[in-house]
Each structure stands twice: as C-alpha cells, then as structure tokens.
Amino acid sequence: MSQTVKGVIARSKNAEVEVVDIVVPDPGPGEAVVAIEACGVCHTDLHYREGGINDEFPFLLGHEAAGRVEAVGEGVTNVEVGDFVVLNWRAVCGQCRACKKGQPWYCFDTANATQQMTLAEDGTALTPALGIGAFIEKTLVAAGQCTKVEESDAAAVGLLGCGVMAGFGAAVNTGQVTRGESVAVIGCGGVGCAAIAGAKTAGATTIIAVDIDDEKLGNAKAFGATHTINSEKDDAVEKIRELTGGFGADVVVEAVGRPETYEQAFYARDLAGRVVLVGVPTPDMELTLPLLEIFGRGGALKSSWYGDCLPERDFPMLVDLYKQGRFPLEEFITEKIGLNEVEKAFDTMKGGKVLRSVVTL
After folding, report:
1. Which Gene Ontology terms cover its molecular function (predicted)?
2. Which domains does the chain possess?
C-alpha cells in the first residue's frame, strides 16, 4: 500500500517552501523506497524553487541524502531492505554509448523512478529535485540511485550525494591531481572546499584557495589549503604564479561558474596545466578567450559533471576515508535543522555563511 508522509515542496516560482502531506507509492519494478535520515540543503534546491532549473512545479526538494532502504520492487538486486545507502542522481544505465565506451560517469540515460509521488491534498504529481526529492520522511527512487555504504553518520555521508562529491571529484577524477602537484581552487564554498580536501587527499603539496570572503578562506585553510588569496585585495593570477615559481598551477578548479573567474583560472594554470570548471554558469553567460592562447598553452580545459563520479566506486571509498579520519565530511556541516526550517536555511545560504545546513529526520 502507498503511504502518506511529510515533505517539503516548492509550489510555484519564488514561493516560500511548504511542509505538506505527500503520498509515496509502493516501489514498482526497479524501484526502492528509502526512509531518509538526513539531507543537505544545496544551492540546486534553491535554484529549483526560483525556477532556475525548469518550470515543472510543484517540486519535491532535496537530493543530497542518506537513509535506509525500506522496500524494494521486483527485479531489484543491488540493494535490499535494511541497507544503509547514499542517494545519487546519476544512476547509470550500462547500455548507452558513454557506458559502453567505459565512461559510465557520462551516462546519457540515467535512471529515475517510473512512478510519481503526489500531493495528498489533490493528487498533483510532484517533480523530485534531480530525480530524488529527499526533504521528506520517505522517498521513492530508482534502485540504481541507492548506493550501499558502510553504516555511518547520515548527516555527513549524505553530502556525497551532490556538493562534496562534485568538488572532490573535480580535483581527483576530472583534474586528476597527483602527488606533488600544485592546485588552485577559485571559489571556496562547499564545492570549492571539497575540491581542496580532495587535492590534499590526492597528495598535492601546494594548494591555493581564492575567494573574496576571508571567512570562506579560513574554511579553505581548515580543509587543507596551504595558501589563501583574497582576490578583492590581490590579483589572483599574479599571486598564484608567484606561489608556483612563476609558472602557474598544475590544476586550477573553478568552483564559481562565472566568466571572469574562469578567465582567472585559464591564465593561472601552468603550460600544459588543466582547468576544471565545476561551478555552474547560467544560460546567458558567454566567454571570450584568445584562440592562440588556448592552442599555445596546451593542457586541457574540462568541465566536471558531479565530479565525474561513479557512485558505486566513489561513495564507498570516500566513506572509508571518512571513517579512517582522512576525509573530514563532518566538517562540512554548519548546522542541523528540521524539515520546517528549509526556507530559513535558504536565507542563511544566501548570506554565504554556511557550508551546509543539513535536515535530519
């Protein structure tokens, strides 16, 4: 039988979120119901509420979550009832051209639940954020969106579901940072700090954090930055070169998503260095760079989708590093809140004073 639970929705563009009753159907073939234990409040959820993703309102918000499998549908073999899981929004198909080329992190046909969760009040179908919808007591997802990991603090490991994985993966998977390399990270919010922590884990010896907020630069130091640059006070490109023997960084991660900061990243890399764009630009943004500079510098200009992660490979590994004390997931949690405090958390987020607010259930 279906069940009715509490969840957080955005009913219309820019309207304050509401906690309402939501009907969750029993899982069908290839689906699972997960009892949510914790879910981070991500900028993407705010973008949904503001209509910045699409206009398929009402949205069931939340996607950065961990919990326990409560029920599975026919044919599900990757998880079973009782498993502790982190949810992911790129459940790979294994059959598309990217998967068949051995690049499943680029999967072009990722899975979501077939059935829809609905408003209890009138049966209106909900659009789950990133195909998950986890600001809710229990959610329905495709079973492939559940990644089984070792039992852990749900508030910490749930953050792998989006921002932390995006930043870590931008440095380690996309940027391929290796021992002894220099890394610069432009933008030191949650994603940028995760890139810094990833660079440290990978063995980078010079890790340069760039931001315009001294408080964020302090956070970056705590996650492993060896140097900080306030780009309102100093020329970021000049300082990065100064800190790297005059050459520029081997890898520059741009975690802002703006043309001016991408241009800084481009000129701050060494010859044959790598630039990784993980900050998300808006559709109206454009960038102009000299083609000769692109040719002459060599190296690589890359974008990073979800940290180019493969959840079944990366989530268990990162949870293991966390439990060993080598990857401080808990340090990304600024505050723990209830379902009824999501709107307040959005306001706090806009002030730039949190890495992550986490809803706990």
Report:
1. mycothiol-dependent formaldehyde dehydrogenase activity
2. 3-161+328-360 (3.90.180.10), 167-305 (3.40.50.720)
